[in-house]
Specification:
Largest sheet: 6 strands, mixed
Number of strands: 6
Low-confidence stretches: 93-104
Radius of gyration: 28 Å
Order of helices and strands: HHHHHHEEEHEEE
CATH architecture of the largest domain: 2-Layer Sandwich
Helix content: 25-40%
CATH superfamily of the largest domain: Phage tail protein-like
Shape: elongated
Strand order of the largest sheet: 1-2-3-6-5-4
Length: 254
């Protein structure tokens, strides 16, 4: 804001709090302008109006800047809003139209599939929840009452230095998103999944081979729509050679 615009801001504050000695000299005025001069004038004016309406005492510089930051910071949707977005996206586009249905695309890879195994593992732990990739879309319950789990692949790499003649070892990192309308239950459910995986130390893949888990981590500050709050790191083996049928198909005895 310009110096002239700051004069208006200063006049607003002094007019709203006439009994307080605010910015009484040129030094304090210079300090306030130095601390607020980089803000957009209209944004600062709007923030000041809200603060005046809710504060008995004059707002401090830090309060004005914090209020301006609230207006400019990206707002994360709450659980209820997120539920509605997921439900609308699935209803409109279907589960498999991944480019259009937000981040909730099908995550199946190929056998042995770590995502399918993780999703089924969670479904077994929370059978009453909705697990994308396990539950058919047509059975989706009302989004305001049923927790939704969604697992996705973050990275998958061939492990170096640990391969054998018949097995190639793969390292993978997976993210688990939990959308739960009850905020009190959100962390409790994530912690239960984390503790269960930590105790088991492995997740069984569809071919009955183990995926050994090396790390499980919860990030409470993560965006549950875009990032996911639970991260699972594991290692599993892929057979280099498929089992072949025996060359002798039949034996005839006389």
């Amino acid at each position: 804001m310009t110096a002239e615009q700051f004069d208006i801001i200063r006049a607003i504050i002094k007019s709203a709090y006439p009994s307080f000695n605010i910015m009484p000299d040129k030094y304090s005025i210079k300090l306030w302008y130095t601390m607020l001069g980089d803000l957009d004038y209209r944004l600062c004016e709007t923030a000041l109006q809200e603060l005046i309406a809710t504060h008995t005492y004059p707002p401090q510089i830090s309060e004005i800047r914090a209020k301006c930051a609230e207006y400019t910071a990206p707002q994360l949707k709450d659980a209820g809003e997120a539920w509605e977005d997921v439900q609308k996206a699935i209803q409109k586009y279907g589960y498999y139209r991944s480019d259009e249905a937000m981040e909730y695309s099908a995550q199946e890879t190929t056998d042995p599939d770590p995502i399918v195994a993780l999703s089924r593992y969670i479904k077994k732990l929370y059978p009453d929840s909705i697990v994308l990739g396990v539950d058919p879309v047509g059975e989706f319950a009302e989004a305001s009452v049923t927790p939704i789990f969604y697992s996705r692949l973050v990275t998958m790499d061939k492990a170096s230095g640990h391969n054998m003649n018949i097995v190639a070892w793969m390292d993978c990192r997976m993210a688990v998103h939990l959308l739960c309308p009850d905020k009190a239950m959100n962390l409790k459910m994530l912690a239960a999944v984390m503790q269960k995986i930590s105790v088991d130390e492995k997740i069984i893949l569809l071919d009955n081979s183990p995926m050994n888990i090396s790390e499980v981590q919860i990030d409470k500050q993560a965006d549950y729509l875009k990032q996911g709050q639970l991260y699972v790191t594991g290692r599993f083996g892929v057979l280099k050679y498929k089992e072949k049928p025996h060359a002798i198909e039949s034996i005839i005895t006389m």
